[in-house]
Amino acid sequence: MNSLKQQYEEKVRPCIDLIDSLRSLGVEKDLALPAIAVIGDQSSGKSSVLEALSGVALPRGSGIVTRCPLELKMKRKKEGEQWHGKISYQNNEEDLKDPSDVEKKIREAQDKMAGVGVGISDELISLEIASPDVPDLTLIDLPGIARVAVKGQPEDIGDQIKRLIQRFITKQETISLVVVPCNVDIATTEALKMAQEVDPNGERTLGILTKPDLVDKGTEEMVVDIVHNVVIHLKKGYMIVKCRGQNEIKKKVSLTEAIQKEKAFFKDHAYFQILHDEGYATVPKLAEKLTLELVHHIQRSLPRLEEQIENKLAQTQAEMVKYGKEPPADATERIGFLIDRVTAFTQNAISLASGEELKFGVRSNMFFILRKEFASWKETIERSGVTFNKNIEQEVAQYEQKYRGRELPGFINYKTFEGMVQEQIKQLEEPAILKLKEVAEIVKKELFKLAQHSFVGFPNLIKAAQLKIEAIRKEKEIAAESLLRTQFKMELIVYTQDATYSKKLGKRRREDEQEYIGFGSLQVVKKSTNNTTTSVDTRATLKEMMNHLKSYYRIVGQRLADQIPLVIRYQMLQESTTQLQREMLQMLQDKEKTEALLLENCSIKNARLHLQKCHMRLSKARIRLMEFSMNTYSFKSAQLQCPS
Ligand code: GDP
Ligand code: MG
Q1: CA distance linking residue 413 with residue 179, whole number of Å
Q2: Is the CB of 189 under 6 A from ligand 1?
Q3: Residue nearest to atom 1 of ligand 1 (CA)
Q4: What residue segments make up the domains of the chain, in order of their start?
Q5: Share of the chain above pLDDT 90, in %
Q6: Which pLDDT value is given to residue 6?
């Protein structure tokens, strides 16, 4: 006996304490903790069972009495130690000296949380009771399932209660105690149905039959069968208890007396005696069973709990990084903070512009987009060349009138050639400017994004950065446009290195031979000249002209395919971001402005605060868990046997 008690002290208590301490840290806000929830239809005897287990009178009576979830933490004290109670809810906490105060205090708490009257609330009232007469157990009492609303209750009170109950019992971490009176048909009780819905195999549901003294004559055998778990099978089985009826309360039968009476009742009962002998009956037996169930349940839940805490911690840490550090209170430190943030941003902007990896977990695919944009610019050049050539070929009929000068057939006029080249290149000017604008817009958007990301929570800072980005974009776009226009003006000078041109022309001529043998391109030209007859000489001249045009266009095309992106990159990326850096740092010189820049967005501030709290809670919880597994290392090898 003594060793059993010792085992109990060493093993059961720490387990339950661990979960209680996690709960009081508020970890329940982040993840579910192992718990036992008591559910049942109204007046099925839930509060009476809790009362019998805890030894304190709880509010009860007819109608809806339990209006908030009540967490009842019971802690066994050593023989002879004093009773002690504590009630806490929202921000209130009060010590209780006398068990007889409990009922009143709970009613007060309920009135504060759910309003005076008959409403309900989701918020938890926590009642701690330490005494030599209670088991080590934490139970959650829930409002009873009501079928109809009474006067003053909202129409949907039944649904509200059901939702509240479901919130608790759907969690894998909750064991449901379903309280069912012996005098009703168990199969039809709403509470059991609800428990079965969330736990179809009855893995974490335990049945408690109450009011055996009120059983209908003739149905006793049925009750015995139920407790023997052969009617509606639950893995955790059933227990049967008898609590104080209304009459006994009136007669002031004490809870201790009631326990004795209960024992006598079962022992002498013609049908239920067997249940007593088998250990399925009485409140003390129930207490034993529940404690062991809870401890086992906690042990089983620990690995998952540890894992969840780790995951949640990692998650909050990641989020905290996203929200960044909060600005310090000290004035000089604040400026330092601001400088750091701004420097990080401008450095990232410069990295972004040069296509380098960004720091602080920021990702950007801007260079990928720009590469595509510049590739499409090259395609524009090629397409424009092709259409231009086609147009000339179609105009071949008018070649004589339009282009031919005084030269003999076979000669091509250099001025004509120059004119045609200039016209062809001119067609690229507007598309080049358009490309500049497109890229400028892309870069601006990326920088905006970067500012938002870098200055999360500081709306004024984001705005200031964005204003600068926009102003610089405008300025640099004008500079780039003027450079591009100059380039196109320069392109009016028809020029390339002799060697380059000869090489291209030679290549072009060879290609032309191939085409002639292959497809007879001149025949195509001939056909397109309807009525007018084109002389063979003209055709030869035209062919020669086309070879020159194509050769030169290829060279210019290559030049512009590189030059335009270079100008755009130089102005819109390189120059813009260095200027952005300069201007952002200059902005910090203005001491009066810095405070405004550091003005924090309220919701972000709150979110950060919330995360910090959550992080603190979880870190503490992790420490508790580590301490626990260190202290109970030997515990795992000698786990308690759970009665089935
Ligand atoms: P709750 O609404 O589920 O919390 O039910 P209560 O615990 O308030 O009990 C409802 C009524 O049933 C009360 O009047 C209790 O005294 C009575 N009651 C509870 N258990 C027993 C029991 O085992 N026998 C008898 N005769 N009455 C009981
Ligand atoms: Mg109740």
Answers
A1: 107
A2: no
A3: 43
A4: 30-314+619-630, 331-599
A5: 47
A6: 64
